[in-house]
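EI: anyone free to look at a 191-residue chain?
SC: sure, send it
EI:
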Amino acid sequence: MNKIARSTANKLVTIASASLILASTSVSADTLDFSGLPIGPQGTTVLVLPNATITSFGSDLYVGASGINHEICALTGSFNCEADLKVDFSSAVNNLSFVASGYNLGDHVDVNIFDGATLLGTVGLSSDGLVDLSAFSHVTSLYMDDSSTGAGFAYDHFVFAPVPEPETYAMLLAGLGLLGFVARRRKESAI
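SC: here you go
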């Protein structure tokens, strides 16, 4: 192989391996979006979204609008957001956070964080605000255990990063292997 063809082949292998590495490391943030749902009771206790299933252990799921935000809650028969709610993610997630809103005096929720059947931890909520669960990895579900005596909480702005699949790691290793191969060939051809 002549020097120009070898140089072109090396450049193509370098580009291919760099592309594999970039493809394997680009995991973007994802969200649960309730903005496409009608405001009010949903007429169901189970809501299936593309990246999660939300289950109310009350009488209905309710979507409300607070400014430009759309939040969801689990209704009791009295139309308070005091029923337990579960979020089952379609695949495991990392860097999870969400916003709790609608606090009234007497409201309290324990957010139980799971990886499959394993309880990773519990975070208690007794005020509105951002709930940062990024310390927990490989989260598959959340169970909001509501013991509120006020109006209860609503939840929105669920943001998370999907856990990379094993194929992603295989692509990363393949890309690194190709880069090593190119580096070795360059070293050998320089001699």
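EI: Helices lie at 3-25, 166-190.
SC: 👍
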